[in-house]
Amino acid sequence: MFGMADTDPTGGLWNWAVACPLDPDRVRGALAGTLERSVVPLEAEGDVLCDVYEVGGEFPTLVDVYLAPSRVDEATAASAVSVRLGAAVLLPDDSLDPSAYVLATPDGSLIAVHVDEIETDDGPERRNVRPATTGR
């Protein structure tokens, strides 16, 4: 899908949240199909490492991607994964605003949004997603 999978340097870190509970293998499969490379749990050996775990909030599945290909745009990858999963994926935007995110929707759209984040013992819970144009 993105080409040059064998020659892409790695080292990126992506932190996403998905709008429904999902099996970790399903998430890794969607990511592997998108990146055209192996995606494995943290304790395994593969091209891309991926930790998937559950928290509360409106985006209860957290996805941490290690060794993400640096030549693949994160938002483009999140959009493709969202389409494959049939679920919205939330990722941080490029600004320094901690409430600013990009929402990748199952139809492939990317929407600028603001989100409230609450830190819990299980990890960050994200709630109250709203369009960025409405302010905080």
From TrEMBL:
Organism the protein comes from: Paractinoplanes atraurantiacus
Domain of life: Bacteria
Name this polypeptide is given: Uncharacterized protein
